[in-house]
């Protein structure tokens, strides 16, 4: 009995492992072998003039403004102006910057506060608009439409007294770097763009790269990585996310104005070296700077909390105020040494569950079967017992030796599924917060897989017992009502088995039963 159970369990485990391996793409990112080498550790921008402004040279006047958009809509914004020697803002023509938000809600009162204020104090008029949100959500984003909305902020800034309308440019962070190149092409009058933590590659590629990097930083087991292409590559349940394959590089190739691209070396979400190479290849007059220990927003940890890297604002101001001399001033790439382990690349498409609606449908259906099946079995058995008390005739019931392994299979499949989802959620939180917890990360994965193995043992016990019974899973009474009850019990039994099997296959797809295959 013991050896038969071991053999059957092993066969089921191998079958699930093979099924999981062939059901979807593997994750094998290509390592970066040719690393960038910054010319110098200094981030100072060459070509700056001695009379260029520096952060702190001016007091800053901050004003709340309203920016009209198309169709009668409007957004709020914060205008920051350097105060001149005469105590007046806008006393002379100065360059201006419109800030383009990264992902999220993007309220002017909360975004870019340090950078916009520092640049304004260097003599540059800055405008941070609210992000328009009525046409922006997690599922639906249109970067070309967003570019048209931000263009109204550019027009507004050009009309501010003291701003040189031909010296207005863009400061775009993260997701905003998929928007600003479109703006540059749509409006050739724009003079420059500062790209902060620019992904450059399409969103789906950047997302897969970021997930991979976050998981590596969290020290997850190797088996977890299989989920990356299957999650990022599939069509998301409920639809949407069409923007995931937006490619900004054609717009970068069309624009001709100078670009300053900056990255923090502690930013695990962006392909730092690859993004730099893509920018240099796509556009002319690109200057790149890497800031040591800086994060996605070019902030560093200080005793006073997160603050802008101490050299960042001065470098940006020097580059901007020194244009056009600084546009191509050497060195082109400088700063701290970036470290990118793997390339961001097109994400393999899942073979199974490529449509997320199908995945959700399978899991919900399986869960429903695990509820309906036992209810049918239990209801028929209870009805049979009541009938037996009244008439003395036997009721239909499961054959001996089936109830316990059937319960173990159903409960185990559901519990393993819940455990896997909970584990991935906890790991995602740790990864996003740059935390490590070996007990949770390693122990949790081991716990999920052990729970899965226990479920497979229950399945093996059930399968062996069914073979012993030659497939007759219900005790059959000899009356017509009993035959009908038998059909109900049999149906409930097989529905439970079908629901549990569907969950086991789904668990195998997501890597719970990997055996190095």
TrEMBL record:
Regions crossing the membrane: 358-383, 404-426, 446-463, 493-512
SUPFAM superfamilies from the UniProt entry: alpha/beta-Hydrolases
Stretches of the chain forming a coiled coil according to its record: none
Signal peptide annotation: 1-23
InterPro entries referenced in this protein's UniProt entry, alphabetically: AB_hydrolase_Est10, AB_hydrolase_fold
Keywords assigned: Membrane, Signal, Transmembrane, Transmembrane helix
Name of the featured protein: Alpha/beta hydrolase
Organism: Promicromonospora umidemergens
């Amino acid at each position: 009995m013991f050896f038969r159970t071991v053999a059957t369990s092993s066969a089921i485990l191998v079958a699930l492992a093979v099924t999981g391996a062939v059901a979807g793409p593997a994750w094998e990112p290509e390592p970066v072998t040719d690393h960038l080498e910054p010319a110098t550790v200094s981030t100072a921008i060459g070509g700056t003039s001695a009379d260029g402004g520096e952060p702190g040279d001016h007091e800053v006047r901050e004003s709340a403004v309203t920016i009209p958009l198309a169709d009668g809509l409007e957004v709020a914004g914060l205008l920051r102006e350097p105060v001149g020697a005469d105590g007046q803002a806008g006393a002379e023509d100065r360059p201006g910057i419109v800030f383009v938000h990264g992902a999220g809600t993007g309220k002017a009162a909360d975004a870019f506060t340090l950078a916009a204020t520092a640049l304004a104090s260097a003599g540059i008029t800055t405008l941070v608009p609210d992000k328009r949100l009525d046409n922006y959500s997690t599922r639906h984003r249109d970067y070309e439409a967003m570019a048209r909305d931000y263009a109204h902020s550019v027009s507004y800034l050009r009309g501010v007294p003291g701003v040189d309308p031909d010296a207005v440019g863009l400061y775009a962070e993260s997701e905003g770097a998929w928007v600003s190149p479109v703006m540059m092409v749509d409006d050739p009058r724009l003079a420059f763009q500062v790209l902060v933590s620019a992904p450059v590659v399409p969103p789906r590629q950047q997302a897969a790269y970021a997930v991979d990097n976050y998981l590596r930083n969290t020290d997850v087991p190797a088996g977890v990585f299989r989920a990356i292409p299957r999650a990022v590559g599939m069509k998301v349940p409920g639809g949407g996310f069409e923007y995931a394959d937006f490619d900004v590089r054609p717009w970068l190739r069309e624009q001709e104005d100078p670009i300053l691209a900056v990255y923090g070396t502690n930013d695990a979400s962006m392909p730092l070296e690859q993004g730099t190479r893509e920018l240099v290849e796509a556009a002319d007059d690109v200057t790149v700077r890497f800031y040591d220990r800086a994060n996605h927003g070019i902030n560093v940890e200080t005793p006073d909390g997160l603050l802008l890297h101490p050299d960042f604002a001065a470098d940006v101001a020097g580059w901007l105020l020194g244009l056009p001399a600084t546009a191509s001033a050497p060195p082109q790439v400088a700063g701290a040494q970036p470290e990118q382990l793997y390339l961001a690349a097109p994400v393999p498409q899942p073979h199974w569950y490529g449509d997320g609606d199908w995945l959700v449908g399978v899991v919900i259906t399986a869960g429903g079967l695990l509820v309906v099946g036992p209810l049918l079995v239990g209801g028929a058995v209870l009805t049979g017992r009541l009938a037996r008390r009244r008439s003395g005739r036997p009721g239909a019931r499961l054959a001996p030796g089936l109830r316990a392994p059937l319960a173990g299979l159903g409960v185990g499949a559901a519990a393993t599924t819940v455990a896997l989802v909970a584990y991935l959620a906890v790991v995602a939180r740790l990864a996003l917060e740059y935390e490590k917890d070996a007990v949770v990360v390693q122990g949790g994965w081991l716990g999920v897989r052990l729970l899965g193995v226990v479920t497979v043992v229950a399945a093996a016990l059930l399968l062996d017992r069914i073979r012993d019974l030659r497939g007759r899973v219900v005790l059959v009474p000899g009356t017509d009502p009993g035959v009908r009850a038998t059909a109900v019990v049999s149906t409930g039994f097989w529905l439970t088995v079908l629901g549990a099997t569907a969950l086991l296959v789904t668990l195998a797809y997501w890597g719970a039963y990997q055996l190095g295959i």
